[in-house]
């Protein structure tokens, strides 16, 4: 699993103009079983997507398709993560 932590590179008003495209991108990841959860940070300086992939290369390949990335609105940092406790402990890959 990889936490993809974004940092907005443009003002929030500009980011929000592409939000529907970004949310559609996330919906596509969810349909394919590649996104476990996602959300905006508070305060809204970026967001976090939890990707269910095996390698950082896979995570970077997927995130390169995010409209936020393609439009220069956000950059992402990939952090590998192994769930060991809490509500997601025991999570099983859907596909």
UniProtKB/TrEMBL annotation:
Q: Where is the YCII-related domain?
A: 1-77
Pfam families the UniProt entry points to = YCII (PF03795)
Q: Which domain of life is it from?
A: Bacteria
Q: Which InterPro entries match?
A: Dimeric_a/b-barrel, YCII
Q: Which family does it belong to?
A: Belongs to the YciI family.
| Name of the protein | YCII-related domain-containing protein
